[in-house]
Amino acid sequence: MSAEAVPGRESDLADVGCGDPIPVSNIAAKQAEVIFTAGPERANANTKQPQPGWQFKSDDEQWTITLQTSYFSLETSAYVDWDDFRERFQELLDAVVDQYNPKLQQRIGLRYLDEIERPSAKEPSDWTGLIQPGVLGPLGDPEVGPSVRAAQQVIEFEGPEQTRVTLRHGCEPLASGGGTAYRLDHDCSRQRGRPFESADIVETLEALHTLALQVFQKAITPELHNELRGGGVSE
Fold first, then answer.
1. In total, how many domains does the chain have?
2. Which domain holds residue 33?
3. Is residue 19 over pLDDT 60?
4. What is the top-level taxon of the source organism (predicted)?
5. CA–CA separation, 153 and 174 (whole Å)
6. Angle, helices 82-100/198-219, rounded to nearest 10 degrees
7. pTM for this structure?
8. Domain annotation covers residue 235
């Protein structure tokens, strides 16, 4: 399945959890040391036990590398397409292997945050016909939908080869006022202890990317899909 750049995509995040500690104290780089807190799957500001780590940002601050003792990730707010992101992640992965040579992987994750803005959608129910009815839920109900001001839902899917997708989605008013935005947040992962092998990690990310794309395409209607392929959402 080919990858597509999706207008309105806010960010893309790939993360790998390592079973053995990475000695971040030996990093030689002119970067400010920051403190991260690690949750069961990724950095979590609410976790009580802090872990030292480093964060590296590009000059335009659109790309971020996070490196902790048992976790590293690449995140962007300037997603172009999958090939570009995969190439950049491969460079990070090669650097981690070259410098630290981890032996075990525990979790591989790929997350997409897609936000589709539609100024003409004044009410959440206006997304009827654009988001699939099974996903839209009560927003598509002719009696209930018009009274809903905002909606959020979480759906978890079991994928092939012990993969999982957590889809957080919903509609909310645009911050600029007038219209609404629909957010589709796909958090895809495989959590399983395995030897740390670069080829396996990249192959897994490819599978997670395909899975995320399938979920996205199943969540929207052909009408919205055609609009996005055309480079924007029609009014």
1. 1
2. 9-229
3. no
4. Bacteria
5. 18
6. 150
7. 0.77
8. no
* Type of residue at 92: L
Burial of 187: CB neighbours in 10 Å, binned 0-12, 13-18, 19+: buried
Q: Say whether pLDDT at 6 is over 70.
A: no
For residue range 43-65, list pLDDT tens digits in order. Answer: 444 444 556 788 999 999 999 99
In a domain, 155, yes or no: yes
Tokens describing residue 212: 């995320």
Report the relative pairing of strands 50-57 and 163-173 from DSSP bridges.
unpaired
The pLDDT score that the predictor gives to residue 144 is: 76
* Residue 148 belongs to some domain of the structure: yes
Question: What's the order of all strands across the beta sheet hosting 151-158?
Answer: 33-37, 50-57, 63-68, 71-76, 9-18, 104-118, 180-195, 163-173, 151-158
DSSP 97-158: HHHH---EEEEEEEEEEEEEEETT--SGGGGBTTB-HHHHGGGG-TTTGGG-S-EEEEEEEE
Share of the chain residues as helix, strand and coil, in percent rounded to the nearest 5: 30, 40, 35
Residue 54: inside a domain, yes or no? yes
pLDDT at 189: 94
Backbone angles phi, psi at 130, to 5 degrees: -110, -40
Residue that has been written with the tokens 């609404």 in this structure: 180
Residue pair 119/179 in contact by the 8 Å Cβ criterion = yes
Query: Which carries the bigger pLDDT value, residue 149 or residue 36?
Result: 149
Mean pLDDT of 116-123: 89
